[in-house]
Design a protein that fits this description.
Elements (H helix, E strand, L loop, with lengths): L2 H26 L4 H29 L3 H44 L4 H29 L1
Helix pairs in contact: 1-2, 2-3, 3-4
Length: 142
């Protein structure tokens, strides 16, 4: 890898870290949390869009077939990352809602622990399915 490649990989990371620090500073200065969160999501969307469009622009500017194939591999990597990331977010939401209910049910009736823990495990299973799909995607590209 060249120095340019490292710089191009580091720019989105630096931008995202800076946006998080700016959001934390804005909330500590008394700005609305809702507006700050919206700006944070918009900045993440902007960085995602730039990172998604740049490989297409490079492959369109070049006539090499090899670069176009690397672009398709890049989309497979993005698909695998999206499958894992979104399923983990969904699993986290499911476990975040099921675990307190399971703890409450267990505190009222200790015999309900076995039934309650099943619902927590089902939420964790969502993340495992996403990881399985991304492993399948990555095994197809090589």
């Amino acid at each position: 890898m060249t120095l340019f490649d490292f710089i191009m990989m580091g720019v989105p990371v630096v931008f995202l870290i800076a946006s998080v620090l700016i959001a934390v500073k804005a909330v500590s200065l008394g700005k609305s949390r809702k507006k700050t969160m919206l700006m944070q999501l918009l900045s993440f969307g902007f960085v995602f869009a730039v990172c998604l469009v740049c490989p297409f622009a490079v492959s369109a500017a070049s006539d090499a077939v090899e670069v176009a194939q690397q672009g398709s591999f890049g989309m497979a990597y993005i698909g695998a990352a999206a499958a894992t990331g979104l399923s983990c977010i969904g699993g986290g939401i499911a476990v975040g809602n099921a675990a307190p209910a399971a703890i409450g049910a267990t505190s009222e009736d200790p015999k309900a622990f076995g039934k309650a823990i099943i619902f927590v495990a089902l939420g964790e299973g969502i993340a495992l399915y996403g990881m399985l799909i991304s492993i399948m995607i990555l095994s197809k590209i090589g």
